[in-house]
Amino acid sequence: MLPWKRVLRPLTALLLSAAAITLPATAAHADTATHSGWNDYSCKPSAAHPRPVVLVHGTLGNSVDNWLGLAPYLEARGYCVFSLDYGQLPGVPVFYGLGPIDQSAAQLASFVDQVRSATGAAKVDLVGHSQGGMMPRYYLKFLGGAAKVNALVGIAPDNHGATISGLTNLLPYFPGATDLVKATTPGLADQIPGSAFLTKLNAGGDTVPGVHYTVIATRYDEVATPWRSQYLSGSDVRNVLLQDLCPLDLSEHVLVGLSDRIVFHEVANSLDPAHASTTTCASALS
Fold first, then answer.
1. What does the pLDDT read at residue 21?
2. CATH of region 53-285, choose from 2.60.40.4070, 3.50.50.60, 3.40.50.1820, 3.40.605.10
3. Known PANTHER family for this protein (predicted)?
4. Sequence-ordered alpha helix ranges (H) in 153-273
């Protein structure tokens, strides 16, 4: 066996590990509907917040662990909040978002219809972290989601791919490595810059008419890199750098979605711009 072939599987493991270390381990993954406190299908949106919020986890995340901070934050402010699991691979529990992203987008489409049916809402708002901020764009663009979604808020979304601080740039030096990643974890392969999935997603423009887009990025991101690649271009887009809101905030890729209340405040502003208040370092106490 040629020496380079011996590193193909370790390299794939390295790619997985680089993503996995950014997610906290949990003792047990609870069933969302039973234990999370959100996904309450009896919740009816109020006049103040007429659209349910659907939370879309990131790669190697799930519908509970990714949202232990943001879901209660939004619930406490009167929103009906829902989250889903998507992108499951056979035999891989808890860590989701690894399946083909176009199929994950179809799962999101079904879940949004379920939420709309239960709540009676004509449209939902989507808030996604990492892959969860990018994947819904496929739903909006190709699966009819634009008619059912008012806004998409992406927290550290890899809209144009994720180099994982340059790690994916090494793949061409190992013949067969990209094919191996694609065969074992297609959701990761779809997020490599220049992939067929991303080429299709971004062809003809980043956005679709009728949807309000917000991107919240951090300059300390080590996964969706370079961080400026997270930004979208379009007529109804707000690209926000976290450090412009609070220069002292050092949150990286994971913390911006899991626990950063400054980010949470800006998410709430994006969901209800008519009642937005200035986001500052003090928003961490809000």
1. 39
2. 3.40.50.1820
3. FASTING INDUCED LIPASE (PTHR32015), LIPASE (PTHR32015:SF1)
4. 177-184, 186-189, 196-202, 242-245, 255-258, 261-271
